[in-house]
Amino acid sequence: MSRCYLQLTLADRRRLHQLVERKVPVNEMARRLGRHRSTIYREIRRNTFHDRELPEYSGYYSTVANDIAKDRRQRLRKLRRHPQLRDLVIDRLQASWSPEQIAGRLWADGLTLVRICAETIYRFVYGKEDYGLGLYRYLPEARRKRRPRGSRKPRDSVFPGAYKVSQRPDFIEDRSQFGHWEGDLLIFRRDMGPANLTSLVERKSRYTVMIKNQSRHSRPIMDKIIEAFSPLPAFARQSFTFDRGTEFAGFRALEDGIGARSWFCDPSAPWQKGAVENTNKRIRRFMPGETDLTAVSQHDLIQLARQLNDQPRKCLGYRTPAEVFLTHLQDGA
C-alpha cells in the first residue's frame, strides 16, 4: 500500500456506495479499494447523509458524500473562516512580506490565536476563490502560476563538485595572488523591467567593475564579462567566484573566452564571496533597489565604479583600489 495519502475520488465513493449497499465488511471494503480500514470508517462516519424528518432516506450516497467532503474542505480553510486574519495576511503581503515571514511574525506577536503556516498563505494566494485579488504580485517571485512543490531542479549537475569554493587554491583564499575576482548580480524592482547589473571585485585590490545587463539569461551575462575583461592581461583575470544562481550557469564560456576558471559558493553561503557582498552594499548607497535601471547607462556605471575605486580603503593601508590595481598591472603580477 502506498505511503502517499490520496483523497478519495468520486469513483472511489461510487465503489464504496456499492459495497455499503451490499453490507460488505469494512476490512474487505478497505482491501478492495486499496485503503486503510480507518480511511473507510472515517469516510462513512463523516460523509453519510442524515435526514431527521425522513430517516429512511439517510445513508451513504456517493455524489452526496463527495459534495459533503468538498464543502467541509472549503469551510476548513482558515483564511475563509477568520476574516480578520485574512485581512492581516493581505495587508502584509501588500507590504512585500513573504508568506514565511507573515506566518512567523503573526504567531510571534500573538496577534491571532489561530496559527497558520506559509503553505496556507500560498494556497490562499493561488486558490481559485481568491486568485482574482492578484496577491501573487506581492510574492518574492511574483509568479502568475505556482510552481509545483519539489519541482526545483538540483543544481549539482550545473555546478560540479570540482568547482566548489572549498577546492579553490589557498593563494586565492588568502589574497596573496592578483587576478582573482568575485561576481554577483544586483537585481532591481521587477516593475522597472528585467535590467540588472553584474558587480565584480578583484579580491586583492578590491577594484570594482560594474556591467549593465538587459536580462538574467546566463550566456549574455557571460558574454558581457568576456567583453569587459578581454583587454586585461591573462594574469589579471585568472578566476571568478560566483554564487549558485542560474545566471552563472554558463560559466564555462569564461574558460573558452578568456581562459578564466570559475568557483562557486556553497548553497546559501554568500559570505564565501564577502568582497563582492561588501561592495554591493556600497553600490546600494547610490543605487537602491527602486532605481530605474533603464535610465542608467553603462557610462554612468563606469563613473560610479570610478568613484568607488578612488576611495581609500583601510584594508589597503588607505590606498585606493585603483592605485593598488594599477600597481599590480604595471608589475605584471
From TrEMBL:
Keywords: DNA recombination, Plasmid
Domain of life of the native organism: Bacteria
Domain Integrase catalytic intervals: 165-329
Record-annotated membrane-spanning stretches: none
Pfam families from the UniProt entry: HTH_38
Biological processes, Gene Ontology terms: DNA recombination
Record's protein name: Integrase catalytic region
Native source organism of the sequence: Rhizobium leguminosarum bv. trifolii (strain WSM2304)
